[in-house]
């Protein structure tokens, strides 16, 4: 009986406290958090503060993509920022592929335009890596001609999941070195339109 009497006193105090805090209909929900309040004009918060359904801007800033997910509006490279596989995983797969293709530090690739077998040295992977819908993951790289400092080729690589890991499925020369008065510069062979490579005349 003592416990029941004590419980009734606590409930009564809770109702009185809640009613005393809400002096006007439509008062802020934050002023009452107890479920004992029976005033139909009061709207009670659940105790969890949420902005936009608990996520700022639906959990994404600009829909999760900066500039539509494309660098320079997709003119340099197509695709959106990499998803599912992290940038580190994509770069790891790229480094493993390059190491596997190298012989004594030399990466050989056939130039489909000239028929020449190029002897190149890996320099770096460009940031950011990408995901192109329907084509897989994408990484752009710099390779230097062996023995010719500053003479760079820009090679593009496409990767796709195979057996739970990423594998390179296509290699393509994006830019070739061109001699100028100022030195070597890279000349593009194709650009991206709607995420598809389009040859440049």
Structure description:
By secondary structure, this protein is α+β, with helices and mostly antiparallel strands. The chain has 2 domains: 2-48, no CATH class; 69-199, no CATH class. The protein is built from 2 helices and 10 strands, in the order αβαβββββββββ. It has helices spanning 2-21, 87-101; strands spanning 80-81, 107-110, 117-125, 130-132, 136-145, 152-162, 165-180, 183-188, 190-193, 196-199. The strands form 2 sheets. Strands 1, 2, 3, 4, 5, 6, 7 and 8 form an 8-stranded antiparallel beta sheet that branches. The longest helix is centred in the first third of the chain and has 20 residues, at 2-21.
How is this fold's topology laid out?
Layout: H1 2-21, E1 80-81, H2 87-101, E2 107-110, E3 117-125, E4 130-132, E5 136-145, E6 152-162, E7 165-180, E8 183-188, E9 190-193, E10 196-199
Antiparallel strand pairs: 1-4, 2-3, 3-5, 4-5, 5-6, 6-7, 7-8, 9-10
| Unreliable parts | 14-75
- Which range best describes the helical content: under 10%, 10-25%, 25-40%, 40-55%, 55-70% or over 70%? 10-25%
Shape: globular
What would you report as the Rg, rounded to the nearest angstrom?
Answer: 31 Å
Cα distance, first to last residue?
Answer: 94 Å
The assigned structural class equals alpha+beta
Strand content: 25-35%
Count up the helices: 2
Number of β-strand runs? 10
- Return the string of H and E elements: HEHEEEEEEEEE
| Total separate domains | 2
Mean pLDDT: 74
Largest sheet: 8 strands, antiparallel
């Amino acid at each position: 009986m003592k416990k029941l009497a004590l419980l009734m006193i606590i409930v009564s105090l809770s109702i009185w406290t809640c009613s005393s805090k809400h002096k006007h209909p439509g008062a802020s929900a934050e002023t009452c958090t107890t479920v004992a309040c029976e005033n139909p004009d009061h709207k009670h918060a659940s105790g969890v503060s949420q902005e936009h359904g608990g996520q700022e801007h639906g959990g994404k800033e600009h829909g999760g993509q900066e500039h539509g997910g494309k660098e320079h509006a997709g003119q340099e490279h197509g695709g959106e920022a990499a998803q599912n596989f992290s940038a580190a995983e994509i770069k790891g797969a790229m480094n493993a592929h390059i190491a596997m293709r190298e012989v004594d530090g030399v990466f050989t690739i056939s130039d489909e335009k000239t028929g020449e077998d190029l002897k190149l040295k890996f320099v770096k992977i460009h940031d950011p890596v990408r995901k192109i819908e329907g084509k897989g993951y994408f990484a752009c790289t710099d390779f230097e001609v062996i023995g010719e400092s500053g003479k760079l080729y820009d090679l593009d690589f496409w990767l796709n999941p195979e057996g739970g890991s990423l594998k390179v499925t296509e290699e393509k020369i994006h830019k070739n070195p061109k001699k100028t008065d100022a030195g070597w510069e890279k000349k593009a062979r194709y650009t991206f339109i709607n995420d598809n490579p389009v040859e440049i005349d």
